[in-house]
Amino acid sequence: MLNLKSTLSALWLATLAWGTARAEEDNVKSIPLRTHSLSQPYLDSDMQSRWYDFGGDTIIRTDQYIRLTSDYPSQSGWLFSRVPLTATNWEVEVEFKIHGKNQLYGDGFAMWITKERGKIGPVFGSADRFEGLGIFFDTYKNNRPGVVFPYVMAMVGDGQKSYDKDTDGKNSEFAGCSARGIRHASVPTKFRLTYFQDKYLKLELQYKSEGEWTLCFETNQPPAIPQVAYLGFSAETGELSDNHDIISIEAKNLYHAQPTGGKSTPGSGRGKKVASPKEGGSWTWFFTKIFLFFLVIGGGYVGYTAWRANNKRSHRF
C-alpha cells in the first residue's frame, strides 16, 4: 500500500508541475515590433527601408527576397536594423532560403544581436571579435570530425573572443545542432529564436515539414545581451558559393500577462487587455480535468487490485 501511495503522490506532483508549466506558457503574450520586422516589398517609396540598412553585395527583389549573397564566389552582404533592440524579452522568427546550382557550396549566413552593425568581416560576412550573440548557419565543413553539416551554432562574443573558421568555431560554441536538409528544403525554411532575460534562450527550426518545429537547442542559462544591441544578418561566399536569402523577419516583444486580469504595461504594450482564463485557458483546463479523471480511475483500479490481492492472501490462512 505504501508503494501505491508513493506512486499516486508522484503522479499528483507531476500533474501539478505540468499544469504550472502550461499555465506559464499560456501566460506569455506578445506585441509586434515593427521597428525590427521586415516583409515584402521591403523598401519604401524612396527605395530605402525605414527600419533597416543594407550593404555589401546585398540585393533586394521587392517581390521575392533580400539576397545577402548571390551564387558567386567571394561575396559578402549584410542587413542591420537602424535602431537597437531594446525589448528585455523577445522573439524573432525568420523565413530564409539557402540554395544554389552547385553540388559543392558555402559558406553560410548569420543572425546577429550585437553592439556593432553593418561591418563587413570574416565571420559569415560580418566583423570578428563582436560583442553580443551570433547564430551561424554554417553549410561548409572545414574541420569538425563527427559533426554533420549544415550545422547551426550559437556563439556569445565578449568583444575579444575570435571565431576560428578553420575549426568551424568549435572552441567558441555556446550551443548548436546539425540541420541536414536545411538547404534546398521542400518546405519554407524558418528559424525562431526566443529570449527571456535570465530565464531561457531557445532556437527552433522548420525545415522538415511545414508547421513542424524542431528544437535545435534550449538553455535556462541564457547569455547576457548588451543593453544597446542591433538585430542583423550577414552572409559570405568563398571559392564555393550559394544564394543566401532573407524572405521575412517577424519580431515580437514578449511579456507575462498579469494573472488577475485588468491592464498590463509591458513597455510599449501599455493598455493591452489580458485574456481571462475562460478566453485563453479553457482548453488547457479541459484537458487537465480529463487527465485528472483518468488519474483517479487508474489510482482506484490499482488500489482495488492491491486490496483483492491482500484479501486473497488473508483467506489462505
Explain briefly what this protein structure is.
With 317 residues, this protein is of the alpha+beta class. 20% of the residues lie in helices and 35% in strands. It has 2 domains: 2-19 and 277-316; 29-256, Jelly Rolls.
Unreliable spans are: 10-23, 262-286, 312-317
Silhouette:
globular
Radius of gyration: 25 Å
Rounded to the nearest angstrom, the distance between the terminal CA atoms is: 20 Å
Assigned CATH class of the largest domain: Mainly Beta
User: Helix content range of the residues, please?
Assistant: 10-25%
Main location: membrane
GO cellular component, one term: Golgi membrane
Domain L-type lectin-like: 30-254
Region (Disordered): 258-278
Description of the structure:
It is a single chain. With 317 residues, this protein is an alpha+beta fold. It has two domains: 2-19 and 277-316; 29-256, Jelly Rolls. The protein contains three helices and 18 strands. It has helices at residues 2-26, 277-280, 282-316; strands spanning 28-32, 52-56, 59-61, 65-69, 76-81, 90-99, 108-114, 120-123, 131-138, 151-158, 175-178, 189-196, 200-206, 214-219, 230-236, 243-256, 263-264, 272-273. The strands form three sheets. Strands 1, 3, 4, 6, 12, 13, 14 and 16 form an eight-stranded antiparallel beta sheet that branches. The protein has a seven-stranded antiparallel beta sheet with strand order 2-5-15-7-9-10-11, with no helix packed on it. Strand 13 (200-206) and strand 14 form a beta hairpin. The radius of gyration is 25 Å and the shape is globular.
